[in-house]
Amino acid sequence: MTTLSQINFRPFHLARGVGVRQVRLACGSVLFCYLLSHYINHALGNISLDAMEYGLGFHIALWQSWIGTLLLYPSFAIHGALGLWALYQRRYFRWKIAEVTQLALGLSIPALLCTHLIGERLGVTLYGLQRGYAQAIYALSIARPDLGAMQTAVVLVAWIHGCIGIYFWLRLKRFFPKIAPVLLGVAVLLPVLALLGFYQQIKTVERLALEPEWRADIQSPARIGTAAERANLERLRNGFLLAYAAAIIAVLAARGIRRIDERRRGMIRLTYPDRTIRVPKGLSVLEASYRHHVPHASVCGGKGRCSTCRIRILGDHDGLPRPSAREAYVLERIGAGADPSVRLACQLRPATDLAIVPLLPPHVDAAFVHAKGRGHPGEERYVVSMFVDMRGSTQMAADQLPFDTVFAINRFLGAASRAVMQAGGKVNQYLGDGMLALFGVDSNPQTACRQALDAAAMVAVNIAQLNRQFTAAGRDPIRFGIGINGGEVIVGDIGYGDHISFTALGDAVNVAARLQDLTKELVCQVAVSDEVYGTAGLPDDAVPVTEISVRGRAAPVAVRTIVDAESLAAMLKGSDATAAAAE
Ligand code: FES
Q: Tell me: the pLDDT tens digits for 414-434?
């Protein structure tokens, strides 16, 4: 019976991945949608002033509805407050240009925007002012061109800030390289169209402004407010600007106080494989790496998204602060949730001396994150390795055309790979006319051993089928050899740049390769170690066991040799039946 603790509450699971940055992103997305609808509205100016006013009706209906208001203003407040929080929280300012630009533009937006927002929205709400595009264009281009220039600046600043934010968000998504050209086109084209539309209608308004009645109407108190109302709106704007400036100064002061406090609390030692550094308590490991110019991968810039800053803690990790919900979520995503020695350097703020090893090379980039939904930081585990090799390919290359040789090898590898995948294993590497398959990366040793033997049987079946086609076409049949061995090996992502791949290293893998070589001498299709054979639960007396010496090993290896790989299927079935009868 399923107990309550076994039920996977998906929404709660998703909520674990939500942190401050996710909230900031969600609020930023709402603001970006607002900007988008504003830009589209401006772009309608390329058609006519009436089209702009018509579009404004939709814009207002959306953003001045209760739902639009509930989304827009809280998002504005939260996004702005979290921007100040980011300014406080970030310890180290050796940022990339895009990050600095995004922060500087983001901090300037509230100051630039408040005049427009207070005039256009608060004026309507408090005094019922009748605003429209014609009036706004007149005010910004003819009456107060200085405000017009500021308004142009704010829409561009907000747009660039939003685009950089979207870029940082999406670039770690696997689909990003595909949609990036379209997004770039929209990011460049839309503001150009919007500014062009606005500019076109300045001409229209200039013509209309030649008529005194139109001018009188556009400047009437019903539209721009009385002198007292305008003065009140201006006071509100000045009050907001003062409060905002005070908030920034308070954040900077808090940073200074924190720095003094950190110095007072003392330093800790961080030991990397090649150096030891001393840093104040409270710094994240990634910030410490930055500060001391230690090369350290950090594709998302320390936002707890990419996992490329992952480190292994050497020695005792009990005294470390527990991972936050966000860090735990990301670690789980990369398959390191159960390993307390793996942490994210950008999230871990140690308070005691620590020895660490960065798990990824410092130069990994977004392509690595795209390629690895689930990375392997490196671990020791029991894995069954199976080498499958095609016999006679050298002779084939000498006798046949290159095309025929490649065709035959590809068909062979295809047949073997299908068998491996069908049995539940993973094709790990293609090695010329052979391949390495791994079993047990996600399963227990007994399952891994049985899967490997099952795969060997299926390789034989698939190759037999292939040979029937080859014989009918007048080709020579394919022969093969398989070596299988299991044991504790190191598994993890290994390589450089874009060429990082998951693989297994260790003596057990080498022995499997040797066993495959020996199948020629032993005149059999499969040479499997006695250990794998026994763990799979096959009958002890079904196949004789032989002790053979393997190159690079002092002690002989007990091996079972199977002349016909297909016979393994019957043995596995038999052992299943025996096990079922015993139950
Ligand atoms: S730098 Fe991206 S998760 Fe730490």
A: 999 999 999 999 898 888 889
Helices and strands: H and E segment counts in the chain: 21, 13
Rounded distance between C-alpha atoms, residue 48 and residue 198, angstroms: 10
CA of 216 to the centre of ligand 1 (A): 59
Q: How far is the CA of 226 from the centre of ligand 1 (A)?
A: 54
Does ligand 1 have an atom closer than 6 angstroms to the CB of 225?
Answer: no
pTM beyond 0.70: the answer is no
From 484, 472, 470, 486, select the one nearest 392 (Cα to Cα): 470
Q: Which of 21, 171, 172, 308 to mutate to test the pocket of ligand 1 (most atoms within 8 A of CB)?
A: 308
Residue by residue, DSSP assigns 33-47 as HHHHHHHHHHHGGGT
Report the C-alpha gap between 135 and 174 in whole angstroms.
Answer: 46
CA of 257 to the centre of ligand 1 (A): 27
Please tell me the distance between residue 35's alpha carbon and the centre of ligand 1 in angstroms. 29
- For residues 279 and 262, the answer to whether their CB atoms sit within 8 Å is no
CB 438, CB 524: distance < 8 Å: no
Rounded-to-integer distance, Cα 78 and Cα 289, Å: 31
What are the phi and psi torsion angles at 190 (to 5°)? -65, -45
Which helix H or strand E contains 430, and what residues bound it? strand 426-431
User: Whole-angstrom Cα distance, residue 204 to residue 49?
Assistant: 7
Ligand 1 centroid from CA 352, angstroms: 21
Segment 476-535, tens digit of pLDDT: 888 999 999 999 888 877 766 556 677 888 888 999 999 999 999 889 999 999 999 999
* 298 CB near ligand 1 (under 6 Å): yes
Q: 354-358 and 267-271: which strand pairing? A: parallel
